[in-house]
Amino acid sequence: MYELQNTIFARGILTLSKETADHVLRSKNPEAAQVLLWLALHPDETDINRCAQELSLEENRFAAALAIISHAQPALHADPKSSETICTEPPSDQQRFVQTLPEYSGEELAQALADEHFSFLCREAERCIARPLRRHECSTLLALYEDVGIACEVLALVLTYIARRTQEHTPEGTAVRISFAQVRNEAMRWYENGIDTTEKAEIYIKKLDQQQHLHNRVLKILGITQRRPSPTELRYIDNFLSLDPSLSLIARAYDITVVKKGSLVWPYMRSILVKWHEKGYKTVADVEQGESWSHCGTSVTAGTQTGVQDTQYEDQVLEFLKNNEKV
User: Fold this and answer.
1) Is the torsion defined by CA of 269, 274, 276, 280 positive or negative?
2) Percentage of residues of the chain with pLDDT beyond 70
């Protein structure tokens, strides 16, 4: 099943063509149709196993659905304006390039392993995944090294970075499973950002780790700790952080959102933070001074009253915010 996942990512089947849809429909397997639509709706998702979890599919049924999809023949070169295409958004230049990465014969791979740099990369990859490389995985690494021109030392750092991040979400005692589709995408992202030396890679990894640390702190404030956030949720969090508020201000905006809407409504919370940003607020104290919060607990945010009158509840919220400011 693991190889089927890589096949689906590698062949661009996520660009939903008429041929792909027709192939899945003719299979008369409703689960294959469900999986295909889930993949089309989550083009940035690299952990395909999340699909099985959200659709509540057992491993054998999920594998059967993937097998059907992996045999589809996507029209990779179809005109995106053609009526033959269901999804009108054309793949990016990076996606087109990734879809056309060459495959190598066993003899070519054996010859490449004579290169000490490539041999080093393969050993590092096997160390990360704790097993021998499969042929298509070795071929992916060689394409990134030989055709794209990414240094083996940089690719090794890509692998160790992905392995470390994957380990954080892997139960203890369980082997780390890395998708080489994810390796391709991450390596191309680094390449497009000009990360072409180990020095630049180390700085970039530090930046990514700092971003992840901030994500984790915001997710904790939002109560999202028992699952991985979706790509859309992460984009909202990045948007929040781009406004440069304090974490206590994010916590306050979350509290107001839940009180007003009954749950976390991302656009509503964003609108609160945007308005506060426009007014120059960086902390809860700024909001209290700027919006004239009353001592009894009634608060005004950007002209909207929350209607909360319970002083004891308000004191608990403010205490939480003070403690969070110190985190």
Assistant:
1) positive
2) 72
pLDDT at site 10: 42
Across the range 30-50, mean pLDDT stands at 74
**Number of CB atoms found within 10 A of residue 126's CB:** 15
- 293 token code pair: 């919060």
Residue 290 in tokens: 């700027």
Residue 53 corresponds to which tokens in the numbers above? 């979890």
Question: What integer best gives the mean pLDDT of the chain?
Answer: 76
CA–CA distance, 88 with 91 (Å, rounded to integer): 9
CA–CA–CA angle 297, 300, 303 (5° rounding): 165
pLDDT, position 17: 63
Task: Give the separation between CA 45 and CA 109, rounded to whole angstroms.
Answer: 29
